[in-house]
Give the backbone structure.
Amino acid sequence: MDTEILIIGGGLAGLALADRLQAQGRDWLLVEAQSRLGGRILSPEIAGARFDLGPAWFWPGQARLAALVQKLNLPVFDQHSKGATLLQDRDGAVQAHHGPSPMQGSLRIAGGMGALIDGLAQALPPHRITSDSPVTALHRSGTHITATHAQGEVRARRVVLALPPRVAAATISFTPALPDPAQSAARAIPTWMAGQAKILAVYADAPWRRAGLSGTAMSRKGPMVEIHDASPMDGAPFALFGFVGLPPAVRASHADEVTALALTQLQELFGPDMAQPLMIQMMDWARQPHTATALDLTTPGHHPAYGLPAPLRGLWDNALLFGSTETATDFGGYLEGALEAADRVAEQLT
């Protein structure tokens, strides 16, 4: 199968780029490793509502995302922040802070961030997208690049790697081999949130709201170190989610115990009515091979300074382009960064 442009990766960056190319009447194909589209965006339906197990927020000033939301006609609502924030010390003692919530001003999308993926995918020709088919090799010969994937081969003039650079470096064989500085640069870019895990607990009602609490809690005890209200726009069912503060190796070997401790922690923070959730589960992104590599098991302690390093530019005479959120300069790591990267690559492909 031949195409002008092959996009590897069906997350937000890859789909946004496909949307731009489709609007321009360009010839493109997209290959996604997983059986679903979305990458780190995952919003499964639970008890009749959709909940974000990946990114959940965007913020004012992120113009690309605001424009996409408007284009797809998706309702937007404020993160629930009314009420006190709880602070839990190392011994488990809990205090209420009645100042402004740290999440005040954060925005969410009705139906979860997965609504972005659904909206983009539904507007694209299905025959141009192949899922459940990891690309294992890229071979450049003359003016074409042949991509080998689980369901066959694609020959393209240009290839866009719309997946984390570390994942590309770890899972794809390049012939001719990428220069050593390029390989080192790709491996050095942390995949945003790849080493993290979220625990989601869904409830029929919201005891924390009845008690005048925002649902936001910060804990030095854990296992969840940061908790927020994850309820849908219309509520019912309601939910909380928390970022797990334990290392990936501990989570992997003690997943059931970590989830049980998280449920106990919710009761310590918000009371005994939290004992019977409709569902509680942990989504450990560090255990997702198409998201995290071994390098991502050590998480950065701060937001990395993202952007496209010089060694990753101009590869294979500009026929091989990197285009994930980690390559964005202004909003690297964020959903806005995925759209920023798609805009940059679209300009390079003209």
